[in-house]
Amino acid sequence: MRKLGAILLAATMTFGVAACGGGSDAGEELSEEPVTLRFTWWGSDARHQRTQQVIDLFKKEHPNITVKGEFKDWNGYWESLATTVAANDAPDIIQMDELYLASYAERGALLDLGTASKHLKTGDFEASALDTGKVDGKQYALPVGLAAYSIVVNTDLLAQYGVQLPDDSTWTWDDLKRIGGEISKASGGKVTGVQSWGFNDAGGLNIWARQAGASLFDDKGNVAIPPAVLAKYWTYLADMAKSGVAPPPSVTVERASAGLDQSGTATNTSVFATWWNTQLTSLTAASGKKLKLLKLPGEATAASPGAYYKPSMFWSISSRSKHPAEAALFVDFLANNEAAAKVLLTDRGVPANTKIRTAITPQLAETDKAAVAYLDTLKVGAAPRVTPNGASSIEAILKRHTEEVLFGRSTPDEAAAAFIKELQAEIDAA
Amino acid sequence: MSALGELRRIRGSARGSPRKKDNRAALLFLLPWFAGLGLITVGPVAASLVLGFTDYNLIQAPEFNGVDNFTRMLSDERLYKALRVTFIYVVVSVPVQLACALALAMLLDRGLRGLAFYRSAFYLPSLLGSSVAIAVLWRQIFGADGLVNQILDLMGIQGRGWISDPSTALSTLIVLNVWTFGAPMIIFLAGLRQIPVMYYEAAQTDGANRWTQFWRITLPLLSPIIFFNLVLQIIHAFQSFTQAFVVSGGSGGPSDSTLFYTLYLYQRGFNSFDMGYASALAWLLLVIIAAFTAVNFWAAKYWVFYDD
Known about the structure:
A: alpha/beta, 12 strands, B: 308 residues, mainly alpha, MetI-like fold, 14 helices, 2 strands, 72% helix, globular
């Protein structure tokens, strides 16, 4: 029996990690032979079309390299990536997110891009931007775009209900609640002042912690947010839902799971909502109204700035790619080529490559220009630590505990203690 | 048989008795099935047993960690939540589903006109019930602006977000499972046809009313079929996954109210890269299902009546 077990384990291990060696060096000369690369990303239909155009451009410059696109939506993407990596069948070029970067890098699934500097240039990136893609000092990922958390306000609805646009350089969280309440009252509840958050994104929680002088994770990658700060976060959200400033919990839950097009902002049923600044274009298209980006409340009175630049996503290369040099060349094309940038524009965030950012600005739509301007005027602190290995499920955990609080199944204090315990356990287990 | 005969003719000169050759031919035809069973079922099942005793994050090699995964279960609060949700789902939905199936089967058994049509119409949901499309449909029907609320609205009743409210979300999934009563219904229908009409005639002569006939004749003679359906549907319900996955968007929410056991297992394995623990969970589920089935068989001695 023990022997059988050993054989089976050996078999699974072969499937799991076969060929840690193999593959060629990322610093080698490019192949003259036909090479096929696989490239995977998540995103909308518009992104798939733009990305395919860029792949075609690349093929024109390098006829012997064929790039095959594999694209999915966000939810299916990570499950499929985990299984392909486990099966030693990972795509060569991987669109990576901050949440999962450490999980993959620390497990040896990603190539150190520093070894590929012969084909992949990073000179036009700011050092602070490049740092966001480093794990243990090695460049495992190249940032594609930058984004910052913001409040999106529907100015058409503000005018309709006769409410003044608040001054976002001085406003506080109490102001947001008060103004939101005025709108809910004026509309008779048809339109709520604020759309609840804490579901699909840890951005708001990060900023809440930073404003209180804390942070979500410490440098060593352990959970560091004090329970009292976290409890206040949920008390604030629960108060808004109870007093009608935000919609009832079940409406919020339903909207949160239905995606951007069904959100309160997109359907013009909530006036203020938290979004990444780069989502302004999609939101404006969906709502058809005038939307404006505001800084988050509480920044003026905060212990330290809450705002920060978040890399919207990264390019990574599989450590088991058989063609790392060619893969690096393709990433170089994505990151540094102006013709490619003019197709992609800000679809993956405001380009982190400063030269490219300047080059494409004249071509941008009004809403994209507003998103770029928001980034430029924002006062930011140092970027938070990359999400530690094991904590990539933070959004799901946050969502669940937010639901517990909103439906009154946990008090904010209970939820805070449970959230911290659970998240830390995930990190410890990884 | 012609294919077998053909084979026998081709291999006419082969050694061995005709019977052995028959067996060999049968094995040959079964080979694709055996290969599939071995590669797709037995292999992974055996591998998961081994992985259950390892720490395996899908990317690095698994490491043996003894019974750590199993001791970890004892303090896993979400596992308890998942067990609770799953037990409620099984204990409520299976009996209700079987009751509906039996009731409908008896109705159809009375020689309705257009029986074939009704039979198909009622059977259809059980073919579709565990599909993604139906789960998506369910989301729409029970959503805040869904069909159910629109109908309630017409009657002047204020609806609610049935799926987005943790106090009703599981109920909507139970309703979905009950709705797929077609498969047990067909089996009941076949069982009812097996009961000799003379029993009922004799009972009528003795003055037994319909209720007594049902209680004293139909139920006892149908009990093997009920037992069969019960065992099958309980196993089936324990393994439910798609409905909860689609309706809750993979989260088991809101606030874990639809966290089926299989969904939790999936989250551990594929969302948290915790495949060792997930494998151990799979084996715990196997043990639970086996225990339920064993109890079922033990209890059957006291209520299942075999008429032979």
